[in-house]
Amino acid sequence: MTPRKFSLYLFCAILGFPASLAAEDRYYSANLTTSSCISASAADVQTSVTLFGDSRIDWADQAPYGWSPGGWTTFFDLGAPRDWNVQNLSVVAWTTENVFTSVLQCLQPTDPSSGDYSPLHPGFVTAKRYVVNAGGNDYILNSITALYMPWRLPRMSQHVTRNQEYLMRLLVVALKKQGLTDAQARENILWLATLPAVARLPISGTVGEQCFPSLMNECTGPFAQTPDTISAIQDSATSFLERNVWLIGGESAGSSAYRPPSGRRIADFVESVFGSDVRRNLGGDISTGNPYLDAYLNWIAWNREENSHPWTLTSFLVYSSRPLERAAAERVGVHYLDLYPEFTNWRDCAAGFCWGANPDLFQDPVHFNVYGYSVIGFHLGQWMAARGWESPWAPPAAPVTGVNDGDIAEIGTDGISAAEPLQTEDAWFIIGLCFLFGICH
Question: What is the rounded CA–CA span in Å between residue 426 and residue 413?
């Protein structure tokens, strides 16, 4: 038994968590595309879990984020050392629409006019258990519009969580096409809650003041260069978790701060922005004599400061959408794992401002560092091990039939869009601003 494995085993045992020593992990990573789906080499008959998502899931094996050539298996071992066999089909910059469209395309029948036959892409080989985390890029896309139209925040939350629900329903259909019953398909999907980004906060300050003066400035993380071994990554991660035990279920002075309230409603947030105390809330110094115009201009100025705007709005959208996202998972009947409390900036959350992330867990304002992946991997590894997800439930196989009209009806849509579309009232507001500022005559 190596010193690292003994330390990892002892660490789990002290905290009262089940652990068994991992002998060999297997990790397959391939981009899921509509043109080629995936190749059979991206999985083997022992693959037990398939991951879908965007860069946050994709970069577990990339420098300078997760670093590890073992990808997620390295971090799952922190919570439950097992013989993990993981297939990661996540793609950088993907939205729920990208994942939805690609999976749907891979499930098309060879000849739709002739009924249910073999799928168009027999190379679409996955495990029969799915872990999914998608929607973060949807929020980023919508946050740009929210800068100029903050009243659309509630609609954007509803739009993104509706997309997430459509994707959940599609993945249920995907597993049923591989021979699972309806109940088995829903039982074998875990939706990992959308997590916050580093954001401007009343106590911690701007994104730049939290060590991220530019989007890709990498000033957080344990490694300046590629670690020599996976053991070095796990040793650093284990040491971090031991120092911050409340992140993985232990008690500490900061533990209560990691249980944020259900959150101020978006409507309350917008009201505070446009209310009489807007200048105090936002610290704005623009004054035109019109309090509502002042509020609007200060809102824009506040959110455009350095690069705080997109991440602040994105994080607040995510924070306020948490009840909607959980409700979507409950309606579909899939599992839901909420690690949002573990990722909040506890200093501000203790004062009631819980929409920003803890910068210690991030390599840049959006993407996790080794410590962030360690927190997720610890909890996710334990969750899956408790349900036996480290063992193949059945050999992965190509779907026996393609999707049909009945499947589309079950999903509830034949397509989704990442960005919430403009409405008529939005257009009238833009026209009104045009005249107000003297641009239109």
Answer: 25
